[in-house]
Design goal:
Blueprint lengths: L1 H13 L26 H5 L27 E14 L4 E17 L5 E6 L1
Antiparallel strand pairs: 1-2, 2-3
């Protein structure tokens, strides 16, 4: 029985969960929505490059980079999106805050590491 419970928890833990993100875009009404970048701040700052490896930064798009970690590393991010709409007779503004990711990278040995996270 314990094995079945552990197997169920493991399967639930490794499945991807897709949910609607809060948005204030007028295009969301037409099901176009906004494109959301999947990666860390470091990946965004380098134009989406996901092949780099570093001893102190996590690269969520390249799991092979966990082997190069020297220390246990964590990273988390929130994002804020503000929107102002203006017409001839009305003015509106809105904003949303979204949780982007929380991740932990652990160095197990000299060339082996693993990561845990929520995106």
């Amino acid at each position: 029985m314990i094995k079945k419970i552990l197997a169920a928890i493991t399967l639930l833990g490794i499945t991807a969960v897709y949910a609607q993100e809060n948005t204030v875009s007028p295009y969301s009404f037409y099901a176009l929505g906004d494109v959301k970048f999947k990666g860390t701040i470091e990946n965004r700052m380098m134009g989406g490059l996901s092949v780099y490896t570093d001893s102190i930064h996590l690269n969520l798009q390249n799991p092979a980079s966990y082997g190069g970690l020297k220390l246990t590393t964590y990273t988390a991010a929130l994002s804020y999106t503000g929107l102002r709409l203006k017409s001839d007779n009305a003015r509106e503004s809105a904003g949303t805050v979204a949780f982007d990711y929380l991740s932990l990278g652990i160095n197990q040995s000299k060339k082996i590491g693993f990561g845990l996270g929520l995106m």
